[in-house]
Write a structure and sequence with these properties.
Elements: H1 3-14, H2 17-42, H3 59-87, H4 102-128, H5 131-142, H6 157-164, H7 166-173, H8 178-195, H9 218-227, H10 238-242, H11 250-259, H12 262-270
Helix pairs in contact: 2-3, 2-8, 3-6, 4-8
The structure holds zinc ion (ZN) (2 copies).
The site of one zinc ion (ZN) has 6 residues, from helix 9.
Length: 271
């Protein structure tokens, strides 16, 4: 079969998968952002006294974030389809049978994907904060100065494209199993939704422990939305500490928020 006919055939084979890929990506976002929204914004949850910013986001912001997130899912779906297409030509190192590389490799490769994404996110994020790219690519995400769970995928289509490239990049470097991708995608949305939740859930001792303070907190990313500078990290603060981009007030702010006591709030309210 000639190249064009074969390409057309491959594309037609992918058509039935379009709604499935879209729905998986969309439901992943909607489910986790929805659960976080219910817990933090509807339900009287136990972390109320841990609110990072005093003000609340407006409902009109939630709608805008949701619509941009749907557009991001369209971009993710498109990238996945292109990857699937090129996979047919042997460009990506996906494998189906876990036995081919074993469970140990599956776990290690999942951790490696998250590690590479952490590094990739830090540098692409810093780049997006340069004047030219900020206006054209990253501003949409920063319109949410008070982030909410719905901010998780609220990106311009260009920014969504940059984030989605992590999947083809890792699949070009080493063999990736779909289960590793699923775990990675679930982990990233949970972390992403929590980082934008507007509440801190981590214990105070994490901020003083030399190792655990390298885990990114919700306060850390929330401060990024407030200051527009500093705290560019995703899962860890490793790169921020290494390259001197941790917010000067971060450790103090984290300590203040996590040292609040619920009783104090109740006392203040009853006075
Ligand atoms: Zn940013
Ligand atoms: Zn953000």
């Amino acid at each position: 079969m000639c190249f064009h006919k074969q390409l057309f055939q491959y594309m037609m084979d992918l058509v039935p998968q379009i709604p499935i890929i879209f729905l998986i990506d969309f439901l992943r976002y909607f489910l986790f952002a929805g659960i976080a929204f219910l817990i933090f914004y509807i339900w009287k949850h136990p972390f109320q006294y841990r609110k990072i910013q005093e003000k609340n986001a407006k409902p009109s912001q939630f709608r805008k974030e949701f619509l941009y997130s749907v557009s991001s899912v369209v971009v993710y779906t498109s990238v996945t389809l292109i990857v699937f297409l090129f996979r047919k030509y042997g460009y990506f190192k996906f494998y189906e049978r876990i036995e081919d590389h074993g469970w140990g490799y599956l776990i290690l490769s999942t951790i490696l994907i998250l590690g590479i994404q952490d590094f990739y996110f830090y540098w692409t994020h810093r780049l997006m904060h340069t004047r030219w790219l900020y206006k054209r690519v990253h501003k949409v995400h920063h319109d949410s100065v008070i982030p909410s769970p719905w901010t998780a995928y609220s990106f311009s289509p260009w920014e969504a494209l940059i984030h989605s490239l992590i999947m083809p990049i890792v699949a070009l470097i080493f063999p990736v199993h779909p289960l590793a991708l699923m775990i990675f995608m679930t982990f990233q949305i949970i972390r992403n939704v929590l980082g934008h939740s507007g509440y801190e859930i981590f214990p105070s001792w994490m901020g003083t422990n030399k190792i655990l303070k390298l885990v990114n907190s919700n306060t850390n990313h929330d401060m990024h939305h407030q200051s527009f500078r500093y705290n560019y990290g995703l899962y860890t603060t490793v790169w921020d500490y290494l390259f001197g981009t941790v917010h000067p007030e971060y450790e103090k702010t984290f300590a203040e928020i996590t040292s609040k006591k619920p009783e104090k709030i109740e006392l203040q309210e009853s006075i």
